[in-house]
Amino acid sequence: MHKVLVLVAGILGLQLFGAAPAAAVFVRFDIEEISPISALGGNLLFDVGGFEGQMTFEFVDTDTDDILDTGTLVDLRLLTAGPIEDAPTSGFTMTLTLLPGNVDLLQIPDGTEFTFTNALGDPETATALNPVGGFAGDLFTFEPGAALAIEGAPESGIAGCTGDPGANACSLVDPPPPIDLSGPQIPIQLEPEPSPIDKFKFTITGLETVETTPASLTGQFEFFLGGVGSAGGLPLAFTILQSSGTVVAPEPADSLALLASLGALAGLRRLRSARARAAV
């Protein structure tokens, strides 16, 4: 009976491991340099005191041509440490101070049901889905209708705005601070738009040699703080100028299946050894 159980475990483990796409690769892009953040369609430009970001994709070759055809954004984090100050070319004098948690945005895990406040101020329920996109050469764009569900870490947000009273620049921040970004935010629509920027279109290179040579990602990113479009909110955009990609470990399910397979093979080896000793 023990031998049968070991055999079954081995078969299931090998099947699970073999079911993972052979061409699937998980790549984490660590964002190293961004442009000044533009707000309100470019009327305001900000430099941030500190910025960290990372995006992890699962890339898959859907056929047999050894070219990665699709990608799924499975994890994202954007962390901006203050202060956020006007860039020299903006024409304004203003500084956004941040809450103790800074501006810390995280992707909500796939399949999670969450409740957010929509642009009309009403509660709305949605389910987070990892957004999927595809390649046209090196250009990666998300599929129409793709949405990114994010949440702010506790105490994440903008505490206040100070600036030149004559320019009254802080009046352009809509909604006015404080802006609480803790908890689920309105899902971000990822389909590219020609105006004001070609957002969410990324150039991704180096994937064909990513195991030995880092890949890179550059392109436009845009999101809203506190609302969406004309219904309220502060639209922010920046260009990812430099981001290095490295292969990361496979998903836990794949790792567990591999361990199950190896464990089952080891069990068979012990059974054979025990049977051989008993025969002596």
Individual helix count = 2
Share of residues in helices: 10-25%
Model regions low in confidence, pLDDT < 50 over at least 5 residues = 1-22, 228-232, 252-277
- State which percent range the strand residues make up: 35-45%
What structural class is derived from the secondary structure elements?
A: alpha+beta
Shape: globular
The N- and C-terminal alpha carbons lie at a distance of 23 Å
Secondary-structure element sequence?
HEEEEEEEEEEEEEEEEEEEH
- Secondary structure: number of strands: 19
Radius of gyration: 24 Å
> Major β-sheet, in short?
15 strands, antiparallel
Mean pLDDT, nearest integer?
77
3D structure, described in words:
The chain has 2 helices and 19 strands. It is α+β, with helices and mostly antiparallel strands. The strands form 3 sheets. It has a 15-stranded antiparallel beta sheet that branches. Helix 1 runs antiparallel to helix 2. It is globular and about 65 Å long.
Q: What features would you highlight for this structure?
A:
280 residues; 15-stranded antiparallel sheet; two-stranded antiparallel sheet; 19 strands; globular
Can you lay out the helices and strands and say which pair or pack?
Elements: H1 2-19, E1 25-34, E2 37-39, E3 44-60, E4 70-86, E5 94-98, E6 103-107, E7 113-117, E8 123-127, E9 132-136, E10 139-142, E11 147-148, E12 150-152, E13 157-163, E14 179-180, E15 183-184, E16 188-189, E17 201-205, E18 215-225, E19 234-247, H2 252-279
Antiparallel strand pairs: 1-3, 1-19, 2-3, 2-19, 3-4, 4-5, 4-6, 4-9, 5-13, 6-12, 7-8, 9-10, 10-17, 11-16, 12-15, 13-14, 17-18, 18-19
